């Protein structure tokens, strides 16, 4: 059955090579998913070699885990590993690596100007039909595409963390996204074995808009003096993951960015927690340490008036 709002699937174009801009947490999970499900060459790019190498190493390590669990055979593991490569973006190497890609997805820092620049650079090297997808969690697809020569090939392709496990994929149609792009996005989402839904190009789409309301709510409770572990313990058995655990999984900076975007769009309805702002300013990546207890530095930041 065709998902609601999806155009005729006969318009979909084949995806034979995937480019991923960014090699961080989300990008490397995307590389793993694309290579496993599409079995086509996937190139991860980033601005420095260390990040690129780390991204590729993550994919290889995850494939090794699947092999060890007996989920895939040795031949498939080797084939998938060989399909993943890394390149520097911005330099000639990165440009060459993308020139024959027909589906490029960006998963770089959540900042409109950065994402626009990425797409402007990619557009110089790929064919006019190459899809430019964005994994943005909150920003406008229409605005991201506005200055491009071919804005009709830009589409939102929003995954959830952990990518391998979460079934949903929000597909976002910008004002100028055409039917061939949308049909390709839906066909690709299906090939990736995700549940695809068409969502409006509005701040934070569906899930993060609702999540932003919830995270603002628990953020306010902490700002009013309730300790984080107490708030989290209130959710035991209620949610798959307590709120501040979830915030640590997605990253405090992403969570803050989401609430800021929503607050800008709907100032009366969304709360931006000053404690969360302090945690992000201190560049903390998680609230909890590896042993599962609250990071003492985070605790001190939360208590600060
Ligand atoms: N990467 C890959 N696989 C993972 C993983 C990860 N980070 N974390 C867990 N898994 C896999 C495990 O390998 C396991 O797979 P298996 O059964 O095939 O071996 C399976 O998930 C279940 O894991 P566990 O038994 O260890 O743990 P749980 O049962 O507690 O499930 C969870 C873990 C699926 C992460 C669950 O806690 C959960 O659903 N949490 C909520 C996640 C969520 O809501 N994500 C959305 C965040 S919002 C977002 O991403 C939007 C963005 O824009 C910010």
What would your notes on this structure say?
- The chain is an alpha/beta fold.
- The protein has 2 domains: 9-199, Rossmann fold (3-Layer(aba) Sandwich), CATH 3.40.50; 207-299, Orthogonal Bundle (N-(1-d-carboxylethyl)-l-norvaline Dehydrogenase, domain 2).
- 47% of the residues lie in helices and 12% in strands.
- The protein has 13 helices and 8 strands.
- The mean pLDDT is 94.
- The protein binds 3-hydroxybutanoyl-coenzyme A.
Task: Write a compact overview of the structure shown.
With 305 residues, the chain is an alpha/beta fold.
Tag the structure with descriptive keywords.
305 residues, alpha/beta, Rossmann fold, N-(1-d-carboxylethyl)-l-norvaline Dehydrogenase, domain 2, 47% helix, globular, binds 3-hydroxybutanoyl-coenzyme A, 3-hydroxyacyl-CoA dehydrogenase/enoyl-CoA hydratase/carnithine racemase
Question: Could you give the topology of this structure?
Answer:
Layout: E1 18-21, H1 25-38, E2 42-46, H2 49-68, H3 74-83, E3 84-88, H4 92-98, E4 103-106, H5 112-125, E5 131-134, H6 141-145, E6 154-158, E7 168-173, H7 179-191, E8 195-199, H8 207-223, H9 228-233, H10 243-250, H11 252-265, H12 274-281, H13 296-303
Parallel strand pairs: 1-2, 1-4, 2-3, 4-5, 5-6, 7-8
Antiparallel strand pairs: 6-7
This protein binds 3-hydroxybutanoyl-coenzyme A (3HC).
3-hydroxybutanoyl-coenzyme A binds at residues 137, 160-162, 164-166, 208, 211, 240-241, 246, 250, 254.
């Amino acid at each position: 059955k065709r998902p609601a709002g999806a155009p005729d699937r006969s318009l979909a174009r084949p995806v034979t090579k995937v480019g991923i801009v960014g090699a961080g947490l989300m990008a490397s999970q995307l590389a793993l998913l694309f290579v496993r499900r599409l079995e086509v060459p996937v190139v991860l790019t980033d601005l420095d070699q260390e990040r690129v190498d780390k991204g590729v190493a993550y994919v290889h390590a995850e494939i090794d885990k699947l092999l060890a669990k007996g989920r895939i055979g040795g031949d498939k593991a080797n084939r998938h590993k060989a399909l993943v490569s890394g390149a520097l973006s911005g330099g000639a190497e990165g440009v060459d690596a993308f020139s024959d890609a027909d589906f490029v997805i960006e998963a770089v820092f959540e900042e409109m100007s950065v994402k626009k620049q990425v797409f402007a650079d990619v557009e110089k090297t790929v064919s006019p039909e190459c899809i430019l997808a964005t994994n943005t969690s909150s920003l406008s697809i229409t605005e991201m595409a506005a200055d491009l020569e071919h804005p009709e090939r830009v589409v939102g392709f929003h995954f959830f963390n952990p990518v391998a496990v979460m079934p949903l994929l929000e597909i976002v149609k910008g004002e100028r996204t055409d039917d061939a792009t949308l049909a390709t996005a839906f066909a690709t989402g299906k090939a990736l074995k995700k549940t695809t839904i068409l969502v409006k190009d509005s701040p934070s789409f569906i899930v993060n808009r609702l999540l932003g309301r919830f995270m603002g709510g628990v953020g306010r409770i902490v700002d009013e003096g309730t300790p984080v572990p107490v708030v989290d313990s209130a959710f035991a058995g209620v949610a798959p993951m307590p709120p501040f655990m979830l915030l640590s999984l997605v990253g405090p900076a992403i969570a803050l960015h989401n609430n800021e975007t929503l607050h800008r769009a709907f100032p009366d309805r969304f709360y931006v927690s000053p404690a969360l702002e302090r945690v992000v300013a201190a560049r903390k990546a998680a609230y909890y340490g590896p042993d599962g207890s609250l990071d003492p530095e985070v605790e001190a930041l939360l208590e600060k008036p």
